[in-house]
Design goal:
The protein has 2 domains: 2-113, Winged helix-like DNA-binding domain superfamily/Winged helix DNA-binding domain (Arc Repressor Mutant, subunit A); 134-291, Vaccinia Virus protein VP39 (Rossmann fold), CATH 3.40.50.150. 49% of the residues lie in helices and 22% in strands. The chain is built from 11 helices and 11 strands. The longest helix is centred in the middle third of the chain and has 37 residues, at 96-132.
């Protein structure tokens, strides 16, 4: 009983500071880093770190690592989660300061996402240009185009660009992005990557944008891409490194290319991009030896 009482008193004491209350409220909304909490509250990093240490000691927050980053959140488990929930339920949900802090956090993350996306796009564009600089992209097909990221990066170097995705929301977003970017040579189409509505040998360049690993039948997808590829065309294979290592993805690329009668140029990784990506150019066996 005394231990339980001591813990409750420790938690009340930890919440006696208004900044600590704001920290708990924020970490109840989202998993937050020290940097985010410092920016949102306007407090110094050492002070926020000290507050977080005390809140973790009181079992009001927990600390965990995700890759290179450390985050804080309100625990869902622990020694006495019911008592914690009852205590935190006393915090007024309609407190204006909590709403302001949450909005600041959303704004901060939106800004960070835009900066990170722009940086990643530059890295990806540079790698793609270096892989394809030898000749024009010609008529380009992006299979699994999503919201049109690669279309925007490569459209200016292509004669005609077609993006295919099965998701109507993604196509609508991509179509709007193409309009805003002033890219009239781009078009979006619904399509199943196993059976696409295009003629044989219609495209000079085909991009398989992070679709093979999750396709279930990657060889069938590659066979369909080969059907659409001109005799001297190129297929660009892109894959994000998730559960597999770069070496495992490299082996997958090599195996798929061999089994479908293609030759694979040396894959290139982008370790600076998060998550890391692997890119490779595949060609028909006859074309690969000439292009090497």
């Amino acid at each position: 009983m005394k231990a339980s009482t001591d813990k409750i008193l420790k938690q009340f004491k930890a919440l006696a500071d208004p900044i600590k209350v704001r920290l708990v409220a924020l970490c109840g909304v989202a998993e937050c880093s020290v940097s985010e909490l410092t920016t949102v509250t306007g407090q110094s990093q050492p002070r926020i770190s000290q507050h977080l240490k005390q809140l973790c000691a009181a079992d009001l927050l927990e600390r965990f690592r995700d890759g290179h980053f450390v985050y804080y959140r309100v625990p869902t488990k622990g020694v006495d989660p019911l008592s914690r929930r009852r205590l935190l339920a006393l915090l007024p949900a309609d407190e204006p300061q909590f709403a302001k802090d949450t909005e600041r956090l959303r704004t901060l993350r939106a800004q960070d996402d835009r900066v990170a996306q722009a940086h990643d796009d530059r890295l990806l564009h540079k790698a793609l240009v270096e892989l394809t600089v030898a000749r024009p992209l010609g008529d380009l097909l992006d299979i699994g185009c999503g919201q049109g990221r690669l279309l925007k990066l490569l459209a200016s170097r292509a004669h005609r660009v077609v993006g295919v995705d099965i998701d109507p929301d993604a196509r609508r977003f991509a179509r709007a992005e193409m309009l805003l970017a002033g890219l009239p040579n781009c078009t979006l189409r619904q399509g199943d990557m196993f059976s696409l509505p295009f003629a044989d040998a219609e495209f000079d360049t085909i991009i398989l944008d992070d679709v093979l690993a999750s396709a279930g039948q990657p060889l069938k997808v590659l066979a369909e891409a080969l059907r659409l590829l001109k005799s001297d065309g190129r297929i660009l294979l892109l894959a994000s490194v998730g559960d597999k290592s770069v070496a495992e993805l490299h082996d997958n690329f090599t195996e798929w290319a061999v089994l479908t009668g293609m030759r694979l140029a040396k894959p290139r990784s982008i370790p600076e991009k998060r998550p890391e990506w692997l890119l490779a150019v595949a060609m028909s066996s006859g074309r690969a030896s000439a292009a090497a």
